[in-house]
Each structure stands twice: as structure tokens, then as C-alpha cells.
Amino acid sequence: TRYYAQAAAYEERVIITAHPSHRSAIVAIDSEETESKSVRLYTGRNEISIQVTVPEGQENTYTLIIDRALQ
Known about the structure:
By secondary structure, the chain is mostly beta strands. The chain has strands at about 1-5, 15, 25-30, 30-35, 35-40, 45-55, 60-70.
């Protein structure tokens, strides 16, 4: 699943927070096991991957694509 957003040129970071609906689910943001992470935004396209794994082993991956303006 992909989600799209835009950021102004002055926005250099974004905080990504994921709250899984399953209590025991494991969340990883850009391969780091965490439910919240500050991510640097570069000018242009930025892809942030969010993986959610439930104890039964099923994994869902979500991609957040943020386009940061040049000016």
C-alpha cells in the first residue's frame, strides 16, 4: 500500500508514527524496529517503508512517498 504527501522546501524532517491495531504487532520504520522515527527529507522524492508484522508471521508493508519541494 502506498501513501503520498508533499512537503514544503523548509521542512527538513518528518516524524513518522505508526500505531498497529494488533497489540503484539512489531513495527519497523525504514528497517528500524520502532513505532516512531524522525526521518530526514531530501529535496524531491523520499520513500519511507513501514513494515508491520503480527505474531502469526503475517507481514504488511506500507510505503509513504513524500515529495519535498525545491523552493
